[in-house]
Here is the input.
Amino acid sequence: MFETTVAGSLPKPSWLAEPNKLWPQWRLQGAELDAAKADATLLAIKEQEDAGIDIVSDGEQSRQHFVHGFLEFVDGIDFAHKVEMGIRADRYKAMVPQVVGDLKLKGRVHGNEAKLARAHTKKKLKFTMPGPMTIVDTIADRHYGDKVKMAMAFASLLNQEARALEADGVDTIQFDEPAFNVYMNDVKEWGIEALHRAIDGLKCTTAVHICYGYGIKANNDWKTTLGGEWRQYEETFPALAKSKIKQVSLEAQNARVPIHLIKLLDGKDILIGAIDVASDEIETPEKVAAVIGEATKYAAKEKIFGCTNCGMAPMRRDIAYAKLAALAKGAELARKKFG
Ligand code: ZN
Here is the structure.
């Protein structure tokens, strides 16, 4: 009960990439960079284990950014001529690559780090990839001329890599869909269908992560415009409850999300965000346990997992791992109080 996990990314060591940035530059190149990524992956696993996390990830140490870390391995994308695009309904601008031809995987995307991680931990292992809707919201289209068609093409590639990750021994495959909190009608119209294509044929645990974004200024500013109660989940959870996805990861700690909305996810595992990634203040175990306890009022205890609100990539490393230790201690406390 109340097993703990992470939404996905963790900070990279400063010898691997620029710290505290969402789009950091690598510090090394070629074979040296590959070796450093592998070292950082092992460290991330060790630090999660030492913090007491039950289901660990590779910390996304091998990717520069959660979306473009996948796109780099896709043929049909022009990275040399990036264009400026408004992202998440124009919440912020980013320089993005362009789709210029039929999409195809160049080979394995996360094979190296998945095999490495699997060989070095006995814990359950989770891998994350960007969801199809979030990908098409983070890239310019000069080829398909139709967002849904392009999303389905990406979903097929995600499925190809997901099946390979499952064969590598990965226990949970999660798709990150922050865009699900922005385009709620699209979620119902084609977003879940795209996820179904991405998980097609998988036997491992499948998850979708839906949040209000990394703890960066553009997101924090956006949250101030969302009013006293954030009810985006209310529109998508009923459709997700009917979907084939097993787990839903959501934001809760310090969020204005009414926790009772998780009732709408009947039957799903709930990865409740008990750690705020937009604040450097380290949660007390009591604060973590309080969110978990609140969730137990609206969902079966055995369906609840302790998680972070979102990825921790841009955070300070010492703070991120202190927060993970608080998450594990808070879940332990919750087992005593509510178990
Ligand atoms: Zn997130």
Notes: Strands lie at 55-57, 74-87, 92-105, 124-130, 140-141, 172-176, 205-210, 247-250, 269-275, 304-308. The first strand starts at residue 55 and ends at 57. The chain has one domain: 30-338. The chain has a mean pLDDT of 96.
